Amino acid sequence: MNFYGRDFLRILDFSEEELHYMLKIAKEFKKMKKAGINHKVFPDKNIAILFEKTSTRTRCSFEVAGYDLGMGVTFLDPSGSQMGHKESIADTARVLARIYDGIEYRGFDQKIVDDLAKYADVPVWNGLTDECHPTQALADFMTIEEHFGKLAGLTLAFVGDTHNNVCNSLMAMSAKMGVNFIACGPDGLRPTDEIVEKCRAVAEQNNCTITITDDVDALNGKADAIYTDVWLSLGEDKEKWGERIELLKPYQVNMKMMDNSKPETVLLHCLPSFHDLNTSIARDIHETFGLTEMEVTNEVFESERSIVFDQAENRMHTIKTVMFLTLNKKEEK
Q1: Set 10, 133, 275, 305: catalytic member
Q2: Catalytic residue from among 184, 199, 208, 270
Q3: Residue 273: partners with Cβ closer than 8 Å, 6 or more residues away
Q4: SS3 letters for 175-237?
Q5: Does 270 qualify as catalytic in the annotation?
Q6: How far is it, in rounded angstroms, from Cα 96 to Cα 179?
Q7: What secondary structure letter does DSSP report for 102?
């Protein structure tokens, strides 16, 4: 199992054994962090993190993980880089690869991170694209495994806008880990046939199922974990807010949905969440549409069944693992 020099672009690029190994190492890093054990193994390395889309968890996770490993970290947002404006992706990749030991990208088109990986001869890590969010899925499955003590045989349901990057990566991770996956959302916001077919082929090999449905009752008595995401994505056109809200209202995660699933069902959310009126965007939505809660009710979000902040913390441990494995020449077993 040799990760050295590899890119981390999609969950489907890795075998089940490799993904299990990543989760194992992430747990070890978490123990070391909690115990205060120094693990600055890369004092001579530097990484660049490119952000075309803002983020709290992804940026903080990459920066702290990099510092914990002893590396220098350079953050570049659109104002700090000429990538795609005055300089091509290919040229940017080749320049950065001469200076840095690894490159993270968070932004839009999957082709951008693919091209960075194509032209850079150092590892490239996908912090989020329109197609997938692999570092998020890795952290989510670490969190699920910590909570239940296992993965295979569980059922994970993603509820809401199932035509998004998080759902795609969770579906792929479920198929790899032997977890039954339910994508539950309106017909107009379904995963593409291409990603569903790819994941079903993998799921068949690992004795699990992929279900695509618009019926929330499909979760009844089945879901061990219910996952949701914001109804209005980053950069969403405000003129479309009303249409999207009406489509997604039936898929709000509330205590009735949780109770109808299983008594031990937990909530997952990649954050941020519109579960109250404590943000300016939530207040704007409330003034226009009268909603005090959106994709998840505050009752569920703040309940003991919510493990969303465990997820947020685990972003850092799993991202640290991805960087460590792909940068470490000695990590070959």
Answers
A1: 133
A2: 270
A3: 230, 295, 296, 301, 308
A4: HHHCCEEEEECCHHHCCCHHHHHHHHHHHHHCCCCEEEECCHHHHCCCCCEEEECCCCCCCCC
A5: yes
A6: 38
A7: E
N-terminal to C-terminal alpha carbon distance within the chain = 5
Q: Annotated catalytic, 133?
A: yes
Please identify which residue in the block is written with the tokens 């941020």: 272
User: Is 85 labeled as catalytic in the residue annotation?
Assistant: no
Where does residue 260 rank: exposed (0-12), middle (13-18), buried (19+ CB within 10 A)? middle
C-alpha torsion angle, residues 274, 169, 141, 63 (rounded to 10) = -70
* Options 136, 184, 305, 311, the catalytic residue: 136
Tally of CB atoms within 10 A around 189: 19
Q: Which residues contact 194 (CB under 8 A, 6 or more apart)?
A: none
Rounded distance, CA 122 to CA 105, Å? 13
Of the candidates 59, 106, 305, 317, the residue annotated as catalytic is 106
pLDDT at 333 over 50: no
pTM above 0.85, yes or no: yes
- Token pair, residue 168, equals 């795609």
Annotation says 252 is catalytic:
no
Q: Which among 7, 68, 114, 229 is annotated as catalytic?
A: 229
Give pLDDT, residue 195: 98
311 part of the active site: no
State mean pLDDT over 230-234: 81
Q: State yes or no: is 98 an active-site residue.
A: no
In this predicted structure, the answer to whether residue 332 has a pLDDT above a threshold of 50 is no
Do 47 and 72 form a contact (C-beta atoms < 8 A)? yes
Residue 64 has pLDDT above 80, yes or no: yes
Q: Any alpha helices (H) in the chain, and if so which ranges?
A: 16-35, 57-68, 89-99, 110-119, 134-148, 165-177, 193-205, 241-248, 255-261, 280-289, 298-301, 308-327
Pick the catalytic residue: 57, 59, 315, 317?
Answer: 315
What is residue 234's predicted lDDT score, i.e. its pLDDT? 56
